[in-house]
Amino acid sequence: MTPATATVVGIVALVAPFATIPLAILLDRTTSSGPSAVDVVWSLGFGIAFAGVGIVVARRQPRNPIGWLLLGASLAVTLASVGPQYVVLDYTVHHGKLPLGAIALFVTQAWVYAFMLVPLIVLLFPDGHAGPRWRWPLRAYLCAALVYVAGTINVAAVALSLRTPLDSSGNVIGSSHPFGSAAWFGPTQGAITIFFGVFCVATVVNAVISFRRARGERRQQLKWLGAGGATAVTLLLVTIIWSSAPAFVGNVLLPIALTALPVSIGVGILKYRLYEIDRLISRTLSYALLTGLLVGTFIGLVALTTDTLDLSGRVGVAASTLVAAALFNPLRVRLQRLVDRRFNRARYDAQATVEAFTARLRDAVELDAIRSDLLDAVNRAVEPVHASLWLRG
Q1: Which of 67, 90, 139, 342 is 20 to 30 A off residue 194, Cα-Cα?
Q2: Closest CA relative to residue 152, chosen from 124, 180, 182
Q3: pTM higher than 0.90
Q4: For position 146, what pLDDT does the model report?
């Protein structure tokens, strides 16, 4: 594979997700059962994020399979979004007269193919090599993926042989309960799903073990992977569990969740400002805790002033806002120091060293002692290769 090939494939992967927008509008107007806005946002977020990072990685490191896997995942999700919409439009509205309707029927399950590529990306991160102990598990996983793809194609072929390949819900007939020549895929699908789950857990455990053993730059790369994966999983769980939240909350959280993993992978592979990850994690945690505390304080004060003290709603809200604003900076400083002690220890130790040196400097009178103390503080805080101090006579 060459950078030119990566450019062509990447452009296709970046542009293709936008095909879901006109299809969704047309399907909603003709059948009144088009995909929801969240589904469209999910498709666009996943496709564009994975394609954007994939094209950059594949162009700069064409021999690294991760870039191509990211592009493949983006294309698979796009096919899984466009395919079902086009199939419903063809067989429900136009009675199978549109071109390429049969081909679209075969890619309705492509979203599974995309998620099957994600554990491979985690396993091969960051240099594209899994190690000799993963040779046979990786081969078994690839064989299982091929069997799954063959099974979904067989199910689509059986449905295509019927007069109407879709059921009343718009799903491919037999996708949940295969029959006919595809009956073998029913129990096989369950076994492959279990194997897929075990393989995913194994790749995460492998990444954790690698992180514990890694040092230097590789450790920072794995930190980026872990931060992106944790962010994506947390936000996805929030959007799933918090079903009572307003729709715009899910529309905001979902793209962030889908963007976090590929962006962190891209940063880790391309080694762009790797050592900012500690600061990023600490700032994210501190501001998340700060937001939670301020929101809780604000709600509590509003309830206290309006219910207990019997003040008007506007006065209570104004007083609560002033108190929350006054607490912002003191809470931010305290929380930042607390989080830095755990997640950004280098910055915390450097700050403590500088503060200790400043305190000693107030009482220092001997020039040699100040010179020695200054060099010691610089060496401990900045850790340079060499440090020297020249004083003009």
Answers
A1: 67
A2: 182
A3: no
A4: 93
